[in-house]
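so my prof wants the structure for this chain in the tokens format not the other one, which i didnt know existed until like an hour ago. anyway here's the sequence
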Amino acid sequence: MAMRPPVGLPTMSKRAKRVLIALVTLAVLAILWFQFVSIYVDWLWFGEVGYREVFTTQALSRIAMFLIAGVGAAACVFLALFVAYRSRPVFVPSNEADPLAPYRTIVTARPKLFAFGIAGVVGLISGLSAQSDWTIVQLWLNGGSFGVNDPQFGNDVGFYVFTLPMIQLVLGWLFVIIGVCFVLVAIVQYLFGGIRLSGPGRKVTPAATMQLSLLVAAFVLLKAVQYWFDRYELLFSNRNPTFTGASYTDVNAVLPAKLILMLIALICAIGFIVGAFTRSVKLPAIALGLLVLSSVLIGGVWPLVLQQVVVNPNGINREPEYIQKNINATRAAYNIQDNQINYIDYPGQLSGDPQEIIADQQTVPNARLLDPNVLSPTFTQQQQLRNFYGFPDQLAMDRYTVNGQTQDYVVAVRELNAAGLNDAQKNWINEHMVFTHGDGFVAAPANTVVNGYPDYVVSDLAALQRQQAGGAAPAIPVSQPRTYYGQLVTDYAIVGSDGGAPREYDTDSSRYTYTGTGGVPVGNLFQRAVFATEYGEQNFLFSTEINANSKIMYNRDPIDRVEKAAPFLTADTKAYPAVVDGRIVWIVDAYTTAQNYPYAQNVTLSDATNNSLAARGALSQSSQQVSYIRNSVKATVDAYDGTVTLYAVDEQDPVLKAWEGVFPGLVKPNSDVSQDLRAHFRYPQDLFEVQRSLLVRYHVDDPVDFFQSSGFWRVPNDPTVSDTVQAPQPPYYLQVKLPGADKASFQLTSVLTGFQREFMSAYVSAGSDPDDYGKLTVLRLPTATQTPGPQQVQQLFRTTQEISSLVTLATNQGGSKVIFGNLLTLPVNDGLLYVEPFYIQGATTSTTTSSSFPQLNRVLVWYAGRVGVGTTLTQALTRAAQSAPVQTPITGDGTSLLPDDTGSTTPTTPSTPSATSPPPANEQAALAQMDAAASALDAAKASGDLGQIGAASQKLEDAVRAYLALAGTEIPSASLGPVPTSAGG
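here's what i got, hopefully its the right format
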């Protein structure tokens, strides 16, 4: 039977080939064009901000890394393939059933193509991977000394931060390249018969044996080198979960094991080299087995046995020496050493008259009643002006001197918020060419309210026009209130005019043309094509509104601009606006970090800076792990022209010095900071949260106590948020007069409670004023004094009858809600004063939109065991002075531990009366019943009888419910005065 000849592959016509080549060429050109556009847009942006050397240095560093790694890897691979191919067996037995024969024929026909092709692919992959490590190389080239030696090996810390990462990088790449070469040589030898899996005679030719043995020898020799440097990595060990650094087991078992394994690896390498020349695989095999067995027994089993048998049962005697090293290194790495913190033993007394502290002219008058994390809706409703303006969800705190008086202000920029445009306003021209900028700076004294609302100081275009017309200047004058750069602008803007009518919206009666230096020219056809590609917007090409003078603004968020201009910095998540020398600027705190500070505790930034604000959606830090951090740079971004300026505020930071070697002249010296700008510097919140997360443990000096967790503190959860949010309380910026200080100063403050306890243990603050900037103060309370912590005080506030009544009313108001503002803690008269604003946000309806944002309704205070509620801080303190002391809840959940008649301690809750009053007949009777119940509650509190207090509380609750059942649709506000009952007066 005749067989049909095989059907060949279809051939392409010349025309089809030309079409295919054209399509491939177009695809390649399109890919290259998109890559060019991405790079070119960055190039233009860096030129706009004047930081083009950052772009060029990064680009050249990446190119150099790509070439070095790519060419080096390709050369090694090519050499290995060349040697393997040249040493292939001369005669390969022919076998029709040999499955490798077709592949062998293909490779033999074009050996150079395969060699260069494989080497090129490996080199390309290696180069692309290596270019991202340019920062490691640059720090190695420019890094210097820390002036501090590690306690184990005596090396300068700079070796671990700058040099060791480079050594690890090189070793890692050599391991990969040797491994790739080994695999490729084995494949070539197998393909050409140098390695056979079956058949008579020798399975591996002498040439293949030599090549593979030498590669394994190089690999093992490299492993010996790695064992030597692995010793230094023990200083970052996390074997003991209590601390970071070499532990007893690491020093006494793992460290000797590394040296022993290094010697064994050297012997094994020699064995492979000898085996390569003797053409024997037995000696290398024995050597390899010895290395594997030794690494398991010496490097794994022995440290495990020592840890379980010696250390775990006797850790209190074995680990303190190494814990002490960790304490010292951690304090140095995070700037929390004893000489950098002022520890003060603070009485935290529980006695005193709240009436006396009303006369305090330093701390109490500055207690802020406006919560910047609550009042964004209020600012928006009262100061938005137009729907396309807006304010961030979290406002900022700063301080200003007005009429000779310095006080805290809640501050914000009235920014452009394109998300607020309505459907009729949404088109390309409006979104990018008409609504381009915000209008003005809005501030409000933090301790002042008018009818429950902020007393605004507005510096905008209207205020500027009044001033230019001869009117009075605002309290915080601004020479250029237009803001083109801010936190809410997420898209680009096209500005500029060719002399025609202004186009940008400025006020209802005026239009404006941008005259600043910000933006990138986009007037010519090439530039328009570039940005049309970048944003996928054809209007760049066809719009006649774009002219020769047009400029495009992009990357307008201040934090993004700082991180892009200085990629070696980690920006704080809380940028804030300030008026400096008459201009609105964004101030951004920036950090230099390192991961290899020996013995310093590892910290994950996102975990250390987690708080209730982040849990509710605020911008959070990255998950970067650090063991060293400094706020070495302060950055400003001009809100009008986008100018980015970097100032070195910690010029001794070794990491910053290294980066200044990479980017010389990028960061201005500390002496260039103007006096007005320095007056608005704040101690950065993220750094403070990192430090307080460590201080809860690292305030302990004795390593034995540290091992036992004795005397540890805890960052309390924020008690003012809902029960579903369990996150640490954020720190607060306040004007505080610390013990021993002559006057109040702007401080970033936080409270710390006992470990697994709710009572106060410490009060931590960081100075922000120029004369005490960066000074940390820790007020340590006696352990015997049970000063209530935030959770307990908040529970007292919530169960205060006046507040519970307001909560009940709001709950039944159909959409209204109560908001507990920031719970502030102030050291006053050797005790602690708690102040909390209480807001009510009414339901939003078609007719009462004015009540749809928070309004200050009450001020809550706790001092010396007394609680007061009032419409003002003074009234709340007065009522606290008139009230009887209240029992502090132990658990913070509404129960308390009180002594019973037998002297034992049992949980108790308010009692429930056995009978209730008859229901009132009308609203007037319900109000009378509420008044009577409130008076009865006051009398019960004065008697101190818990049973009477519980019964009276229940009667008042019943009276409130009865009133609500009849009417009760209005929520009392601060402007209406107090409700019938209060906390003891």
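also thought this was worth mentioning. The first strand starts at residue 341 and ends at 345.
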